[in-house]
Amino acid sequence: MRVRSVLAVLLGLAALGCEDTPPPAAGPGSSGGASSGSIDPSTGPGAPLEGTAALIDLAAFEKTPHTEDPFDRPPDVECDFGFGLEDGFFEVETDLCHHGAFMQPLLAPVRVGDTLDFLLLHENLVSADPDAQTHLAIAFGDDVVFETTIDIPAEANFLDPSWTSSVDAPAGTPVYLHLHNHGINSYRVADLSVTYAEP
């Protein structure tokens, strides 16, 4: 299942910038989240948590208000444009939004021990600063669950991290996506999902 998702993203990466590029194959709901064979764990309070479920709707991200941003934000941030759904991805263009934080409620619960998967594509990364880096982070509420940097310059590529959750987060918990860099670059979020650990 994971291999198919990555292959789909690689195809999308190869054609970034093309107007007629189809998005990666998506599962139920076509949000770009869970892949084929996923289940909806929210069918009832006693429903078992098993299989794989999408945690985000790529069309539902909203800019985080400054007072709610869990990440350090400079006071002069400009991010009124340059983000939103594009070709089936959630895209951030850092020439228009160089320091963004975006949020939505988790679509499904996450427990300690569950496996989290995230996919992000980026085009060639450039910057006038020779020591520039991209900073990317994900938080569930106040808990930062993933964080990484990408050295700039970099060729077009994708990130495909998979890790074990160290926190519990019920459905509806705010999930925050943070991304900033110095340079005119483009990033596309393709997926954030959970695979439930066996009881």
Mean model confidence by pLDDT: 81
> Helical proportion?
under 10%
Number of helices: 1
Distance between the termini: 21 Å
- The number of distinct structural domains comes to 1
CATH class: Mainly Beta
**Stretches with pLDDT under 50, minimum 5 residues:** 3-7, 17-44
> How is the main sheet built?
7 strands, antiparallel
CATH 2nd-level architecture: Sandwich
Query: What is the gyration radius calculated from CA atoms?
Result: 16 Å
User: Using DSSP, what is the number of strands?
Assistant: 12
Output the helix-strand order.
Answer: HEEEEEEEEEEEE
Instruction: Assign the CATH topology.
Output: Jelly Rolls
Content-based structural category = mainly beta
Overall, the morphology is globular
Determine the strand fraction and express it as a percent band: 25-35%
Describe the structure.
By secondary structure, the chain is mostly beta strands. The chain has a single domain, classed as Jelly Rolls (Sandwich), CATH 2.60.120. The chain is 7% helix and 35% strand. The chain contains one helix and twelve strands; from the N terminus they run αββββββββββββ. Strands 1, 3, 4, 6, 9, 10 and 12 form a seven-stranded antiparallel sheet that branches. Strand 3 and strand 4 form a beta hairpin. It starts with a helix and ends with a strand. Residues 3-7 and 17-44 have low confidence and may be disordered.
